[in-house]
Design goal:
Helix content: 25-40%
Number of strands: 19
Oligomer: single chain
Strand order of the largest sheet: 3-2-1-4-5-6-18-19
Strand content: 15-25%
Length: 372
């Protein structure tokens, strides 16, 4: 028995990533699988069809890839594509569980592993696609800020005069925030960071940045390493205490997200009005409403003399490395799913495995994930 793994070409206009690379195709073949890559799937990420064919994959049509036993994607395919998948097949990718769009998967009789739901435990680190892509987003966000900020980040001493180092504030110290801190520090900026989870203080200091110590009256630590939503009173106190620090910043990078909920407001309009002209806010939460209410998703706008960057596809803008990281995440996840023995290779979803149990949003046409 042989398992066929299909790799889809992404249809979203701004999506340049791909769910498998020639490297991971070779490794899937050593595990007893066959691989069908949709023609052109890796072109935008600089992985040509010829490289996949050389690795041992078959290059086929969308229908060929969708007919596979296991279908790999970056973003959830359209309902029309899902409808032609064969009953009993397994779909793996970012399936946006909190959007509640699993009915089409269930009606098609599919199973689905949503990498958005992989638990943040030590054993699952190599499969944590949210973290691998957030890492890239944090890095690219700082580069985007430097592009729009039109001044130096480091201290510059020249015969024509001296430029002071820019002051960068990072709000939210998760994976993206930590990478943003590290990148801004490498570029020579003075960096401060804030998070509602007090345990992140040590991480900030270890990167050479300053931690903004304010007491909002409660902890924002949630389950699985994520932040939880603060009470309205705590949010108001947070905005009040952070306000003056933020007005003095040259660049603010916001990264605060709460799974399944709108992004918390960290930079209200009054703060934007008080910032110096030419300052920049890069809002990594733009797709979820934004940490600043003036942010516009997928737009770069200027308001009150401040540039607000609402780009939502940072990993796609570094598609080659982002795809390599993501493809390895999926390969490591498939290690738990593809079982090889003397009879061949088969797909097995072991619900006693907490990673599979956590990520399995749909099982054989039955929706397992419930929004909280």
């Amino acid at each position: 028995m042989t398992v066929l793994v299909g790799v889809l070409r992404e249809r979203a206009a701004s999506e340049c990533r791909v769910a498998a690379t020639p490297e991971t195709v070779r490794k899937l073949l050593t595990r007893g699988a066959q691989v069908c890559v949709e023609a052109g799937a890796g072109e935008a990420a600089r992985y040509p069809d010829a490289a996949y064919a050389e690795a041992g994959a078959r290059i086929g049509s969308a229908a060929d890839a969708l007919a596979a036993d296991v279908v790999l994607c970056v973003r959830r395919p359209a309902d029309e594509a899902i409808a032609v998948m064969r009953a009993g097949a397994l779909l793996v990718g970012f399936l946006e569980p909190h959007a509640g769009r699993f009915d089409a998967l269930a009606q098609a009789g599919l199973s689905a592993l949503s990498v958005d739901l992989i638990p943040r435990i030590s054993r699952a680190q190599s499969m944590d696609a949210l973290s691998s892509q957030a890492n890239i987003a944090g890095y690219r966000a700082v580069l985007e800020a430097t592009f729009h900020y039109r001044r130096f980040l480091p201290l510059m001493m020249t015969s024509a005069g001296t430029a002071k180092p820019s002051r960068v504030v990072i709000l939210g110290v998760g994976v993206a925030g930590l990478q943003a801190i590290a990148t801004a520090r490498r570029l020579g900026a003075q960096v401060e960071a804030f998070d509602v989870r007090p345990e992140t203080r040590e991480q900030v200091l270890s990167l050479g940045a300053k931690f903004i110590d304010i007491d909002v009256g409660e902890s924002g630590a949630g389950e699985g390493g994520y932040a939880r939503e603060l009470s309205a009173q705590a949010q108001a106190r947070q905005q009040q205490l952070l306000g003056e620090r933020l007005k003095a910043a040259d660049i603010i990078v916001t990264t605060a997200l709460i799974p399944g909920r709108p992004a918390p407001v960290l930079v209200p309009e009054a703060v934007v009005q008080g910032m110096r002209p030419g300052s920049v806010i890069v809002d990594l939460a733009a797709a979820n409403g934004g940490n600043c209410p003036l942010t516009e998703a997928d737009q770069v706008v200027e308001k009150h003399g401040v540039t607000l960057v609402g780009i939502t596809d940072y990993p796609s803008r570094l598609a080659t490395d982002a795809s390599a990281f993501y493809a390895r995440n999926l390969l490591n996840l498939l290690e738990l799913v593809l079982k090889k023995d003397d009879a061949g290779t088969r797909v097995e979803l072991d619900l006693d495995d907490e990673i599979i149990a956590g990520a399995l949003a749909v099982q054989a046409g039955a929706v397992r994930f419930a929004k909280r």
